[in-house]
Write the structure tokens for this entry.
Amino acid sequence: LRGADPQLALGEIRPMRDVLHSSVAQTKLVANLIGAFAFIALVLAVVGIYGVVSYSVSQRTGEIGIRMALGAQRRSVAGLMVREGAVPALVGLLIGIPLALVSTRLLSGLLFETSPRDPVVFVLVSASFLALALLGSWIPARRAARLAPTSALRER
């Protein structure tokens, strides 16, 4: 450029990809941090549900043994324990979805190629959370359903 016109006022010359990268770097960092915190919150929620249901199974071993001794099916015992974890997850979704819809205005500047109230995103995130909550409940519920009635009653 200097060879073509030595009178040109040239500033900092950088490749366009560097200019583009620096213009979205802060937004990208904030979005990545929010995603990381959301993932950590999801893991904590699932581990919490697992812990609560697992503790409930350990506290209700005698009751489960009596149910099994009286003829309860393994499926119904597992279903009882899964419901114990699923109900709080559903309540959390019923409270969380409206709060998320309200808070979308705060995050709208970080969204690209999606609207702040995209129903597909809300459904997928809610379904994923519910599926993980059911998985966190199912593991201890399966353990409860496999209890032998005699050993469960002996532990009581």
Notes: The mean pLDDT is 86.
